[in-house]
Description:
- The protein is of the alpha+beta class.
- It has helices at 48-60, 70-85, 130-148, 153-158, 161-172, 223-236; strands at residues 2-9, 20-25, 28-34, 98-104, 109-113, 117-120, 123-125, 199-202, 208-212, 260-266.
- InterPro entries: PPM-type-like_dom_sf (IPR036457).
- This is PPM-type phosphatase domain-containing protein.
Amino acid sequence: MKIAEWVVQGKQSDPLLCEDALVLRPQLAAVIDGVTSKGGRLWQGRSSGRYASECLARALNSEEAAGMNSVQLFAYLDRCLRESWMGKTLETQELPRASVIVYNERFRQVWSYGDCQCLINGVLHSHSKPVDRLAADLRAFVLEYEQLQGKTEEALFAEDPGRAAIGPLLRMQLAFENHPGPWGYPVLNGQGICPEMIAVYPVQPGDEVILASDGYPMLLNTLEKSEQALARLLQEDPHCCRTNRSTKGKEAAAVSYDDRCYCRVLA
């Protein structure tokens, strides 16, 4: 395989705050999206999402992971997360979590567990969660209401009332992790995976494969085009409540509404 282009960019200017990560090794490329924490615990001074992405990057770079199939790999990654916090008493919302998408050249397959996305020969597989769409719609409703009541743009940047409103829902959704059903969704959290929730896509020699985190609301066939689409959406809708509804918006001092990672592979 050939790596055509890639980038890892945090939503904040400080790269140490970025919760996305990229792993590139012979026969394997992987994008990791650390999940935004629902609790306040720090892990060795880092957010739980950053901690999770670092832990999983180490695991993916290990020789042990090299020959595993999809079920073995995601079970191994989940076990590595669990072993990293064994002995600690944690609330559910404090668990380190991450989504991972992998292109494995040996198996000629893309494997996804979570809401990272891929574009294979121009065909998008987004893996977006119904519960996130519900939360994004509720947040958009609250922000529209606040603006009708006279809330200024500056006030919305300073304090996101929509995000506060969906806080209980974001915590409630944790009960559906790795449970099949209309509201269930896959995520690595150290509590065991659901093998039937692994998404697998075949890849043929010569195919173009793009792996990305969900920080790209429009995943296109080059990094430049994807960045241009993101910039346009941030200009049109910085609060991410209209043309690009999301569970969070762009903070005043941030460069985007979410961390992002992009990798284009020629199989």
